[in-house]
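Researcher: Next sequence.
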Amino acid sequence: MAGFRRLYVGIFCYVLCITLVSDGSQSVGNVEQQEITWGKPNTDTARFDDDNPLNVTAMVGQQAILPCTVINLDKKDVSWIRQRDLHILTVNIFTYTTDDRFKVYHPEDSDDWHLEINPVTFRDAGVYECQVSTSPKIFLPIQLSVDVQQARISGPREVFIQNSSTIKLTCVVNTHSENVGAVSWYRDNAELDYDSPRGGVSIEIEKTPVRTTSKLFLTRAGKNDSGNYSCVPQFADSASVLVHVVNGEESAAVYKARSSCVTCDPRVILGIILLMTLMSFLWCP
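Model: Next structure:
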């Protein structure tokens, strides 16, 4: 009887492990393959440039350029189609959408028919097709991925400042360009007013091609300056830090231990519970 139980548990564990692994593989590897019709090389018929990239990544609020280079176009038409709704965006240099963010970049006498989207929104992510009116038609799908820039405030997420000292907060936004828009600072839900009667509020802005840095300074910090401070760029997700202004004798008492929550794949948790149940059944007399 015990041998039968061990055999049953072994088979069950094997099937469970195979199921978990196969499910995880399917979730990771489920990438849709797009069909591409390039045209015929080494001929006089229209075709796409072999070096045309198929994946483009842009940042929310910035410009996206979807490349399409057509060789031997002759008198054929070039169109851009949005795949999710089959909407015709452009034909040659003409735009066929009321959304004025879309237009074609085509220098005179060039082979380039790039689609420009400016500014990009998160909803613009997806597949766009550059089509040429040959017979049969050739088309080139371009995958547009849209990322959201993320602000980050240096240091811990909760800080303690001595009364009458200066609050110094540094916010960094990593980006592919200098355009993150205006960067504002908030305490709780109110934007900080640099001309307020409180005084002593100032910021420093530094921009490079790869990041924007905003530094906030509040001199002579008092109890009323405690709160949740947020760095809010126009074209990036905000970041926050909780600031406590404390007296010297309070410094040792304000620290509180916090528990962290560890997340786990629900399938793994279910598998562990089932295995523990079966092991307890196995060793029962």
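Model: Confidence is low (pLDDT under 50) at residues 7-33, 254-264. The first strand starts at residue 47 and ends at 48.
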